[in-house]
Amino acid sequence: MKRRDFVQLSGLGAGALLLPSTMMGNSISAEALLNPGMDTVVKKRMADVALNTAKSMGATYADARIGRYMNQYVFTREDKVQNVVNTESFGIGIRVIANGTWGFASTNSVTEDGIKKATEQAVAIAKANSKFQKEPVKLAPVSGQGEVSWKTPIKKDFKEVPVSEKVDLLLRANSAALENGANFVNSALFMVNEQKYFASTDGSYIDQDIHRIWPTFGVTAVDQAAGKFKTRQAMSAPMGMGYEYMDGLDSEKLDGAAGLKLYRNSYDMVEDATIAAQQAKEMLSAKSVDPGKYDLVLEPNHLGLTIHESVGHPTELDRVLGYEANYAGTSFATMDKWKSGDFKYGSDIVNIVADKTQTGSLGAVGYDDEGVKCKKWDIIRNGILVNYQAIRDQVNMIDQNESHGCCYAQSWNDVQFQRMPNISLEAGKDPYSIDQMVKDVEKGIYIAGRGSYSIDQQRYNFQFGGTVFYEIKNGEIVGMLNDVAYQSNTQEFWNSCAKICDQNDYRLFGSFFDGKGQPSQISAVSHGSSTSRFNDINVINTGRTI
Amino acid sequence: MAIYKEDEARRIMEKALSFSTADACEINLSGNESGNIRYARNSVSTSGHRSNQTLVVQSNFGKRSGTATIDEFDDESLKRVVARAEELAKLSPENPEFMAPLGPQSYDPSVSYVQATADITPEYRAEVANNSIEPAIAKDVTAAGFLNDSASFDAMLNSNGLFAYNKETSANFTVTMRTNDGTGSGWVTRDYNDIAKFDAAEASRIAIDKAVMSREAKAIEPGKYTVILEPSAALGLLNGLGNAINARQADEGRSFMSKEGGNKMGDKIVDERVSIWSDPLHPEVPTATWNGAGQPLKKTTWIENGIVKNLAYSRYWAEQKGVDPVPYPSNFIMAGGDASLDELIKSTKKGILVTRLWYIRSVDPQTLLYTGLTRDGTFYIENGAIKHPVKNFRFNESPIIMLNNLETLGKQVRVDGNLIPYMKVRDFTFTSLSDAV
Fold first, then answer.
1. How many domains does chain A have?
2. What would the mean pLDDT of A433-453 be, rounded to a whole number?
3. Pairing, β B350-364 against β B224-229
4. Are residues A29 and A150 in the same domain?
5. The CATH number of the domain where A86 resides is what?
6. Tens of pLDDT along A333-375?
7. Distance between CA A190 and CA A196 in Å, rounded?
8. Could you give the ipTM of this predicted complex?
9. What range does the domain containing A221 cover?
10. What DSSP line would sit under B98-163, residue for residue?
11. Are A374 and A405 in contact (CB under 8 A)?
12. What are residue A297's phi and psi, to 5 degrees?
């Protein structure tokens, strides 16, 4: 039981929430979050110490990332504040190429002396490893960006919003859930600010200020007599936005099927908690699903996770090439399939794009963590696999000479590597609403929200649950279901995609803690989609008697 | 070097405490030095070194607390961090579940630190990679592996007289070997406090053999099978049981351990041969003898002869329930038997040998139902011998059902800081096939 890499902050729902310890930094006061930190002039001077030291020791390339990570987390349960955590993590990570081999070292001592020592360590590591190097690093060219900056376009900086306002909002959501029949409710608010300064021997000095937010809860209803409990998770999405996401604007609400309220760029936590309590109670006595084949109508806050697992990860080039073989695994989407130019990943209406520029998304930044300007590109076009996700030291292996700009490190303390950009399913081109979609289904299940998810190491076989399930019979929602999970194979599943709702239904799902690499690093990524229909999918019943 | 000796750590913390004016003050000081090497495609990919140290001050006024942190330890810095924690405490809301800091405790001397592990160099790590890659190349196999080693210390001092200090080392190694035709894959994991016990070539050879043996797997029908779970595979599901030992969740009615009016303490939940305990002094899996809250960690029985003997009680929940606190364990040890893997295979008429389980996720917390897949070496056994490799399966199974269907317990092996036996289990539920290698 490897708890040492995680910090237990709070119980969310039935299971305890364990945060990767790297999400933590030093505890500081809320006011201290507003401290502007090191000036960019000083950062440039410090970064140059690393770059010059590396070059003087024979490195052919070096980059330095000075990172300051200012996070705030608020945890509550029922009418209690469990914890308000403010953290700051500050330090520098130096990556070098010496003798054609990568080396990396980091330190929280951001002084000339500390940086020199860390740089020397990075070069020493590169040289030690080069002895057994079989594949020297080949970097795709990047022109120096000069001194530039980029900021997440936020309207409200969470650091300027009083903690009491955040606590009040969570406690109001908890209270709404309890008044509507919940026995327990845990809620949390995660707010992240990455202040990143990147410099490289290519002549880039890039200052970025990145914001992310995730409100979430688990509302539990218990039937003591029957010895049963059910938890309904929040329908929020983590976003690359400021505190304005918590405004709960009516203009950003959508009506899902079965009377669900769904949210786009603004989240009404109190309303969602109210509905969650009613649904958690309803789940306690909902019908257990009959296993068999169903047409699935998948809502974006559910489908996003399926996209993440079955398209996002298998099209990471490092997985395809074998760099992740020892941990996350490899990929079924092998180079020969891509090279063939006719590998049918999905049906003709499936168009999937990678995008590091989408406003409001978790992956949006101006430049990636090796100084490449971010962009948007196709992964699947008209159902055909057309490209991968690749960074500077990989693109030569797919005969391309320009990095896709999707390199990321979770902190100054970790080495950067290829991470998933936002991977999104384009909306259907013809007008088509969720109501019309439900009407067109004879025997189906409408699934909203994320649930249990599991997929094999090459991303063929998967099993997904969800937050809420509704049975569709002859074009109508007839009631809630329990114990639903669907099992499929990635290629079969995407080829069964029959219909996609139009742009009006499009919104983002997000994963705040996507894990990859060794040592494991987290990353935040969004997946956009509109509600989509998949025909004839195998549904199993997960109910057990013990 | 970020590792302070006991007297150095005590001196810094006593100095910080001398600046405290709060009702109570608790100080934690920790430091870590770690290094790693990663290789893939038979070549080193990334590797690095990390160094970090932190001092945390928690000050309390009544039930209000504030926390502040610093990584510089001169007098002025210490004074500043204590003042900061006190300011924060005065501003914070009361926590109704606040527990006053513990008084002096007595801890067993730990055996979790080994100097040889702390002394690992970049050259040693490069040799490990080479000892794994060279034999792989010789067998037409591709190696992808990772070694991470770390030396760390943790110390704690509070205004009620508690002082604790511990040093710990660890080394974790995994390697995945894939045949170059892409049809076979093998894996091995090793972890130690003492790096001297580690043999990269020996571990790598096991993974290479499994990769070669697992080539061209055959598909067999999913369903219920007798399985021999290697300790890594068994741990994957036992973790689910480990996560269910929270007494408060059980008492609140939202855990597998819940039952009407309370929890399952004293109930028989699994086969009577199942006993699980924790022991920070076990020589094979030693850990610190205290936890982050300053509570002593002692040998604790969780399940004995199939009966729930303890659940974990936080200090707050223990006080509510009028019982002694029971801290979460730092390791798990499950009783094993004498059977070797070979003997387990020989005694199996028809079954599946599972190297590891992968992507394990909770499906239903009520029944502890989990799903996931087999990976990196799954073999069909017939009449006491491995017949052929089989395609990987998806399973949907609960550790409770698994431990009720126990056939035989084998020898224990250290996995991820725990001691877990090989086990043979009947009627393990595989629900579909996967093409993944």
1. 2
2. 97
3. parallel
4. yes
5. 3.30.2290.10
6. 999 999 999 999 999 999 999 999 999 999 999 999 999 999 9
7. 19
8. 0.91
9. 3-241
10. --PPP-----PPP----HHHHT--HHHHHHHHHHHHHHHHHTTEEEEEEEEEEEEEEEEEETTS-E
11. yes
12. -110, 110
According to DSSP, residue B219 is labeled P
Residue pair A424/A527 in contact by the 8 Å Cβ criterion: yes
Residues of A in contact with B138 (CB under 8 A): none
Q: Write down the domain spans for chain B.
A: 6-211, 217-238+336-433
User: What tokens appear for B107 in the block?
Assistant: 């801890």
SS3 A62: strand
- Confidence band (pLDDT; 50, 70, 90) for A22? low
Report the chain B residue with the minimal C-alpha distance to residue A26: B69
The residue to which tokens 């290519």 are assigned: A202
Chain B, residues 84-123, CB within 8 A of chain A, namely: 84, 87-88, 92-93, 95-97, 121-123
The Cα of A9 is separated from the nearest Cα of chain B by a number of Å equal to: 13
Q: Which of the residues A326, A484, A513 would you substitute to probe the B interface, choosing the one with the greatest number of B C-beta atoms within 10 Å?
A: A326
From the CA of A504, how many Å to the nearest CA of chain B? 32
**Nearest 10 degrees: CA dihedral of A407, A307, A431, A263?**
-80
For residue A303, give the nearest of A437, A449, A491 by alpha carbon. Answer: A449
Residue with tokens 């409001």: A360
Q: Which of A185, A220, A241 is the last residue of a domain?
A: A241
**What is the end-to-end Cα distance of chain A in Å, rounded?**
24
Domain shared by A99 and A210, yes or no = yes
Q: Are A96 and A61 in contact (CB under 8 A)?
A: yes
CATH superfamily for B6-211 is PmbA/TldD superfamily (3.30.2290.10)
What are φ and ψ of residue A143, in 5° steps?
A: -80, 145
Give a yes or no: residue A521 inside a domain.
yes
**B190 forms bridges with which residues in the sheet?**
B173
- Is A126 within the bounds of a domain? yes
- Counted residue by residue, chain B has a size of 437
Q: pLDDT for A68-96, tens place per residue?
A: 998 888 899 999 888 777 778 889 999 99
Residues B219-273: tens digit of each pLDDT: 999 999 999 999 999 999 999 999 999 999 999 999 999 998 889 999 999 999 9
pLDDT band at A480 (very low <50, low <70, confident <90, very high): very high
pLDDT in tens, B344-371: 999 999 999 999 999 999 999 999 999 9
State the helix-helix crossing angle for B122-138 and A112-130, rounded to 10 degrees.
30
Buried b (16+ CB within 10 A) or exposed e, B129-150: bbbbbebbeebebbbbbbbbbb
Torsion angle of alpha carbons B424, B430, B433, B436, nearest 10°? -50
Query: Helix or strand or coil: residue A461?
Result: strand
Question: Do A224 and A327 belong to one domain?
Answer: no
Structure tokens that stand for A271 in this block = 């309303």
